[in-house]
Amino acid sequence: MKVVRIIGLICSYICMFLLAAMALLIVSDVIARHLFHSPIQGGAEWAQVMLVSCMTSLGASIMTGSMVDINMLTKTFKPKAQLILEVIILIASLGMIILIAYQQFVQGMRSLDRNVVWSAINFPQWPFLVLFGVSYAVAALVVIMTIIRKIIVEIFNNVNSGGTKLSKGDL
Questions:
Q1: Would the pLDDT of 65 be above 60?
Q2: Which residues pair with 104 in a beta bridge?
């Protein structure tokens, strides 16, 4: 659990750095385009790579609960039904996240084998694809831990219904 939190935190810092670098690159590109009539070569391609690489923060977002949650319909359900629906949605999300992580690893290895590079910046694609796959693998671990935590909290609260309540922050 601690290792996953550390990896998630590192991925968040990578995302913050890439967002700052992307903003600086775009501003520099606009200034160069207007003042010097010459855009930064490969600037748009680097900005795209940095934007996609910001998905590295997905695991940390899930871990901290900062994902968007729309509960207009589910807030009318009983707490047990809400929990069951949340777990079903988390399991479906887990399946998709695992599929995306796997596909990114496969694409990264293909890109490495074929020496695929971005043409404008002459940089290999595989490191970014593997980073994307790793970040999604971390997100999958976080979703698994979230499912387990929700189930453990519910079981503990049912067993200990008259006593102390356990919240998800206690685990």
A1: yes
A2: none
